[in-house]
Specification:
By secondary structure, this protein is mainly alpha-helical. The chain has helices spanning 11-27, 32-38, 43-59, 79-96, 100-120.
């Protein structure tokens, strides 16, 4: 029996994607210490920002106001962290959704990771994803 996954079309879809993805991040041995140890993310503030961020990218809502890159500069992260973030993100999208917007989300997630990694490369040796 084949189960058809929906595409990302609503705010509820974006919220499901973000919540499911960050639940994986919070259980990941590599990423959890960065988010919850070093950065001490306040999830009650971070998640709504991520809903706005991804809603803007995927649904065109334009609600996100911020500069995400500077928050990543002080983090002790390298190419391995970006690769794991991308792997978890792609896995999450594929588990939940299928369609043009889901594919766009995966491309955007990969592109964001590549840009952030490239901008951080001056701190030390990082590999291209």
């Amino acid at each position: 029996m084949t189960t058809t996954r929906p595409d990302i079309t609503t705010e509820a879809d974006v919220k499901l994607l973000v919540d499911t993805f960050y639940a994986k991040v919070n259980q990941d041995a590599l990423l959890d210490p960065i988010f919850n140890g070093f950065a001490q993310v306040d999830w009650s503030k971070h998640l709504p920002n991520m809903y706005d961020f991804w809603s803007g990218l995927l649904l065109g809502t334009g609600r996100y106001r911020g500069r995400p890159f500077p928050k990543h500069v002080p983090l002790p992260i390298d190419a391995t962290h970006f690769q794991r973030w991308v792997a978890l993100f792609l896995m999450t999208v594929d588990e939940l959704f299928a369609g043009p917007t889901a594919e766009e989300g995966k491309l955007r997630g990969q592109a964001i990771a590549q840009v952030f990694e490239a901008r951080l490369r001056e701190r030390g040796p990082l590999s291209v994803l």
